């Protein structure tokens, strides 16, 4: 784990920082802290070997007490505590309440709810998800078809308006050159009334 990305022949000083995070619960009594962080020290001199290796312990058993909730002073601590309580609890209602504190916990709670469905409920859930996907696919296909139709319609209208503008411009020039209204109408495809209206 620690030597991943470490190239042969490089000095150990080029190792990148490694942080190990361990979730512990009952049966592993480290201390009463929710979060404990350790580094490697020499046993007699207590000199730190390196600051590139840290071992963290998150104590799930410690998140249950009311003292812990009273000791929270920052949003960061509150988020960590909510995460740990979410991981630790088996209570569906508590998990749902904790899920309201974070979009990620909300997503995780939904996944856990799906995983805990019985086979019949899971089939129903999967058929609902399939229906939603089918509806989304149909909507996407119809939307793309609508866009393509709109673009084609816009192009056709643009060409038509462009052709009309070109015919009017040509008629204006021919009229200035003194050609007859009938000849101009024949050359441009405009009606005689349209040609007469040109100034």
UniProtKB/TrEMBL annotation:
* Pfam families the record matches: PDDEXK_2
Q: Which InterPro entries match?
A: RpnA
What the entry lists under NCBIfam families is as follows: T_den_put_tspse
Would you tell me the protein name for this molecule?
Answer: Transposase (putative) YhgA-like domain-containing protein
Organism per entry = Treponema vincentii F0403
